[in-house]
Write a structure and sequence with these properties.
Structural class: mainly beta
CATH topology of the largest domain: Jelly Rolls
Shape: elongated
Number of helices: 1
Strand content: over 45%
Helix content: under 10%
Strand order of the largest sheet: 9-21-11-17-18-19-14-15
Oligomer: single chain
Number of strands: 21
CATH class of the largest domain: Mainly Beta
Distance between the termini: 82 Å
């Protein structure tokens, strides 16, 4: 067909004369000009051709760490990444953003040390002193493999650069029913007479705060443990002293030796 019309379609051949244009229609055939790089085409009844270009996820996410949100109904926007360890908050007009976490409440866990041994009778970890004024507690996770002999599972702590070896008191209960009191001895007792190779659990150690009165500043311990029998143990203890810092934790067994793979991890629980 002559006359500058596409065959049978009624659309002028010269309608689309620029790279990227697409065909639209209102009351007549029109060309929709190409949009911005990475924008996408949306149906838009308010636009003359019924089509319009708008921001896309690709166009908005132009930097590492950006995240999408709706700044208004049917409107995409991106929030810029914050700093390391920031948390997401919801600000004015329900707009999300990154902010430094509030210090109130505490509870942040910090790994102090992880020690794995291949033999011996203890796992002994020394570290930079932690003050009872700065931490809520010290968490001690232990996963012990050992020779199959009957042995007590024991825990001690150090303060001021020295291991404390006296005045420990413990009340330990095997969930099978055996209850043991351990008074004024050299260690806390986590479990008595366990004769199974695999023993694991967690002990919490609460360090006295320098602001506490002397008679309330004892260091306290509680633990939950289990072995491969299976048998569970609950233990609680105190140490008759006035230390308000801790710089050492020692797990030991009273008989036999530890096998390769025995491990202990220490975490501090921040209180600020």
């Amino acid at each position: 067909m002559s006359g500058g019309m596409q065959g049978g379609g009624g659309v002028p051949e010269t309608l689309l004369d620029t790279k990227g244009q697409i065909h639209g229609y209102s009351t007549e055939n029109v060309a929709v000009d190409v949009g911005t790089n990475d924008f996408t085409v949306y149906a838009d009844s308010s636009a003359t051709p019924g089509l319009a270009y708008g921001a896309s996820a690709k166009s908005l996410l132009d930097a590492t760490g950006k995240m999408l949100y709706a700044s208004a109904a049917n409107t995409l926007a991106a929030v810029t990444p914050g700093s390391e360890n920031d948390v997401m908050t919801l600000g004015a007009a329900s707009v999300p953003g990154w902010a430094t976490p509030a210090s109130a409440g505490g509870g942040k866990l910090t790994l102090i040390n992880r020690t794995e041994v291949s033999s011996g009778t203890d796992i002994d970890i020394s570290f930079t002193s932690e003050s009872g004024s700065d931490i809520s507690a010290l968490l001690c996770y232990y996963d012990i493999q050992r020779t199959n002999v009957t042995a007590d599972m024991q825990l001690q702590y150090g303060s001021g650069g020295s291991l404390v070896t006296s005045s420990y008191y413990t009340s330990a209960l095997a969930l099978s029913g055996t209850h043991v009191w351990s008074n004024n001895v050299s260690t806390w007792l986590l479990a008595r007479g366990s004769n199974y190779r695999h023993f694991s659990g967690c002990a919490s150690i609460w360090v006295g705060d320098a602001n506490q009165t002397t008679y309330n500043s004892d260091i306290l311990m509680s633990s939950l443990s289990g072995n491969s029998n299976p048998e569970g143990y609950v233990s609680g203890g105190t140490r008759d002293g006035t230390e308000n810092s801790i710089d050492q934790v020692k797990f030991s067994i009273s008989a036999g030796t530890l096998d390769a793979g025995s491990v202990m991890c220490l975490y501090s629980v921040d209180n600020s």
